[in-house]
C-alpha cells in the first residue's frame, strides 16, 4: 500500500505539461506564461510630468517663497497627448498636465498647489504665474525608461499571470499572450441508480452528484470540464463514453464509481481493453482504492463513487495533475498547524477530517464540521479545511496539534 505522497509522486511521473497556446490578454489571467515577455518600449516612453502644474527651469525659482514669489510668463499650454514644440527658455514657464511630455528646456515641474494660479482647471491660460517655493532639478519629472527599458524582459516564462501581470503586459504592448493550455477533462459518471439533479429520484435512485462536483473542481483548478453524462452499468455504454472523451480531445479522463470489485464495475474492464489500469491501494481515508492508468494514451482516473471520497481523492490526486498539465510548478495545498477542538478517530490510514478552522488569539482552532461518513456532503459544505490524522495514528486527542489543509487557500502559489 502506498502513502498519499507516494501515490501523488507515482501519478505525476506519468504526467507531462501540455503545449502552450496564444490567447488574448485577459484570457491569460490565472495561467502560466509559456514564454518570456519583452518590452517593445521604454516605460514611461518619454520624460513627462508627474503633476498638474508648470514646467520650468529649476534655476529660475531658487529662493522663491510665498512672501517673495518668482513670477514667470506662461508661454504655452501642454495637455497630455499633445506634445509641444515650444522650448522653455530661462525665465519662462509652460502650463502642463499630468502625463504630458516635458517640453525641451524644462527640468522641473511646479505643482499648481505651489503657485498663485487662481484659475485651476480652467481653460484660460494665465499670462504669468507666481511660484511660491524653490524646486530641485528633476522635481516631479518622470524620466523615460525609469520603470522599464525597451528590450528588457519584464516577465519570465513560468510566471503566474495575476492582474498586475496583465497590467504590465498591456503597458509593454502584449495583447496576445503565450500560456500553457487549460487541461480538457472528460467526466464520466457511472451507475444504473443515477438520475440528473433536475429529476426526482425514483425507488433506489440517487442524484448524479459526482459529475457536477468533479466539473466544479476541474473548473476551480483551471481546467475545462467536458461532462459526458451518465453511463449505465453496461460495457457498451461505458465504452461509448470513453470513445466520446477521445473524440472530444480530452487531455484527461476522470470517472467516478465502477472501479472497485463489484460485479457491475465495468469501467475497469472497458479501460483495460484499450489501455491500462492499475488499482492503487492508498492508505487514505476517505477513499478506497483509486484507479489510475490510460485509455488510448489519455491519462485516466477512476475515483470512488461516494461523493465525498470522489471529491477528496480528486483534491489529493487529480488537482496536482491539472496544475502540472497547466504549467504550474507548485501544487501543494497550503497546510497550517491547528489545535484540534475535539478528538478525531482514524483507522490508521492517513485521514482527512472535514473541519472548520478559525483563528482564535494566536492559534488556529479546528472543529469537526459534522458527520464524517464518505457519503455525507453536508459536513464537506460546512468545512474550510481538512485536518490530517497522520498515517499510523488511530486518534488525535482534543487539544492536540495537527496539520490542516486549507481548502480555500490557493494551491498554485508557494506563499511560504
Ligand atoms: P460504486 O463505486 O459504484 O460501488 O459506488 C459507490 C457509492 O457511490 C454508491 O453508493 C453509489 O450509489 C454512489 N455513487 C456512484 N456514483 C455516484 C454519482 N455520480 N453521484 C452520487 N453518488 C454516486
Ligand atoms: Mg456503481
Summarize the structure.
This protein has 416 residues and is an alpha/beta fold. Helices cover 17% and strands 30% of the residues.
What is the beta-strand fraction?
25-35%
Tally of separate helices = 7
The structure class reads: alpha/beta
Q: Tell me the number of strands.
A: 27
Shape field: elongated
Q: What does the largest sheet look like?
A: 6 strands, mixed
Tell me the distance between the termini.
Answer: 31 Å
Mean pLDDT over the residues: 95
- What helical percentage do the residues reach? 10-25%
What order do the strands of the largest sheet run in, or round the barrel if closed? 15-12-16-20-19-17
Low-confidence stretches: none
As a whole number of angstroms, the C-alpha radius of gyration is 32 Å
- Small molecules in complex: adenosine monophosphate, magnesium ion
What does this structure look like?
By secondary structure, this protein is of the alpha/beta class. Helices cover 17% and strands 30% of the residues. α3 packs parallel to α6 (307-325). It starts with a helix and ends in a 10-residue tail after the last strand. The model has no long low-confidence stretch (mean pLDDT 95).
What's the structural blueprint in terms of helices and strands?
Layout lengths: L3 H9 L7 E5 L12 E2 L9 E2 L3 E4 L13 E9 L14 E4 L11 E4 L16 E4 L9 E2 L10 E3 L7 H9 L4 E5 L3 E7 L3 E2 L10 E2 L2 H11 L3 E8 L3 H13 L4 E5 L10 H7 L1 E6 L3 E2 L4 E6 L2 E6 L3 H19 L9 E6 L3 E2 L4 E11 L2 E6 L9 H4 L3 E5 L5 E2 L4 E6 L10
Helix pairs in contact: 1-6, 3-6, 4-5
